[in-house]
Amino acid sequence: MKRTQVVFSIAAALSGLAPFACAADLKLKAADDATTITLDVAMDASSVRASRQDWSITGPVRGDSIVSNGLAYAGGTIPDGDTSATFSLTDEGRLGTLVSRAQYVADGAEIASGAPHSVASTHIFMLDEGSGVITEGLEGSNTEVRAVVGGFGKYSGATGQVTQSIVGSNGTGGLNLRFTFTLKVTYPQDNSELMSRKAFPRRR
Q: What is the mean pLDDT of residues 171-178?
């Protein structure tokens, strides 16, 4: 009788551990399915447009909206920590473009006083081969972690997050940024001809 109880107790214990083992397996599988991608982006300061024409003179006000563009390159293309503002935005080696649509969440005075975040933004990464990723999050003067909210082409249905860090500045006066994506793609599709490089040349 005691032996039977011991056997049942062991079985019950193993059964109780099954959900934890299953959860661990799922976590490992999710990690295995994740894709890591790094892109460097040189933001083009000449492409910036704002909802108020005098915003650059009076300083940004909470609620102001801006849009800007940048060129995307393979991770590591832009020298890390380069503050010489000599990196040139060229089509050589470019992988795509970035469109940033942002709204200020702090006034100029607050930003100057050290506000941790200046804008809330949407980033649309459009690769020249016709795929892309869309992210949402906050931006400031420090490294930020943003949410991946979707994608198209081979990144259709993408979820995950991206770490954004500032690596310097370029010849236009814009920032150089590095984006490290951790993605899980659920519905990869054929690349879109509509979102190819021909449809989105660099603004000059």
A: 94
Using CB atoms within 10 A of its CB, is residue 109 exposed (0-12), middle (13-18) or buried (19+)?
A: exposed
Q: Is the dihedral of CA 82, 86, 91, 97 positive or negative?
A: positive
Q: How many whole angstroms separate alpha carbon 8 and alpha carbon 90?
A: 70
pLDDT at 196 over 90: no
Distances (CA, A) of 144 to 56, 59, 89, 141, 177: 24, 23, 24, 9, 11
Residue bearing tokens 């969440």: 105
User: How far is residue 201's CA from residue 90's CA, in Å, rounded to a whole number?
Assistant: 11
pTM of the model: 0.80
Q: Taking a C-beta distance cutoff of 8 angstroms, is the pair 167, 178 a contact?
A: yes
19-63 confidence digits (pLDDT tens): 544 444 544 344 457 899 999 999 999 999 999 988 888 899 999
User: Residues 116-151, buried b or exposed e (16+ Cβ, 10 A)?
Assistant: ebbbebbbbbbbbebbbbbbebbbbeeebebebebb
The single-letter code of the amino acid at 183 is L
pLDDT, position 199: 56
Has residue 178 got a pLDDT over 70?
Answer: yes
Eight-state DSSP code of residue 154 = G
